[in-house]
Amino acid sequence: MIEIKNLCKSFGDKEVLKDISAVFESGKTNLIIGQSGSGKTVLIKNLVGLLEPTGGEVLYDGRNFVAMDKKEKASLRREMGMIFQSAALFDSMTVLENVMFPLDMFSSMTLRERIHRARTCLDRVNLTGTDHKFPGELSGGMQKRVAIARAISLNPKYLFCDEPNSGLDPKTSLVIDQLLHSITHEFGITTIINTHDMNSVMGIGENIIFIYEGHKEWEGVSAQVMGSDNKRLTDFIFASDLLKKMRKAALEKGKTESFTL
């Protein structure tokens, strides 16, 4: 579990995060949603230590990350996995070498053990037999699955995903969503996903936080999204006129719960 308490972040006179408190639960897919510029990415960067909060606490199972020294933070980061928007694979490395990279850097395993672990992770994301391929030989969806395999190679307690469906078609996005969801439940990981994808919100949003202009505007689960009376949330979700008309029709028929994107 990750808990943030009264988290604030300013850049000079500009306050980007404003007194945010939230709990991200273990074994659940926790989603952060909001418009571009709302503060989602800054929030993620504060959680993983790429930025230092101006105020507040970030608690990893009760351990205050903000108050840790450099050595303690480095130790905790070994419990984190990260999936970047672009997959961020090394083009000059094979698929197997990409997945082994964190193991080479941070584990005390033998070479044989590292290879076995990497192949186990590739099997888990349905990429058996891709060991000797290079990222450029794979589709975008397959590259994202390699990134997931790499992120779970060290058995992380905490998994951070920055727009994991960016650039993917709807069918492939669904595959990535379901993979993240199943891995989260299987290993009891605290998974935090920064996303604009409303299909992800409705499909795997077990805990959703909506950020608006740097503060937490709304919190709930996917089943509560469509029926929310929070205007800022509904304006964000139903950004197009077509979706607004569809929602209006569903509400008139009393079928809000069955309306999906």
TrEMBL record:
Question: SUPFAM superfamilies given for it?
Answer: P-loop containing nucleoside triphosphate hydrolases
- Do you know which InterPro entries this protein is assigned to? AAA+_ATPase, ABC_transporter-like_ATP-bd, ABC_transporter-like_CS, P-loop_NTPase
Q: Which SMART domains match?
A: AAA
Name of the protein this chain belongs to: ATP-binding cassette domain-containing protein
Domain ABC transporter residues, every copy: 2-238
Which UniProt key words apply to this protein?
ATP-binding, Nucleotide-binding, Transport
| One Pfam family per UniProt | ABC_tran
Does the UniProt entry include the keyword ATP-binding? yes
One of the entry's Gene Ontology molecular-function terms is: ATP hydrolysis activity
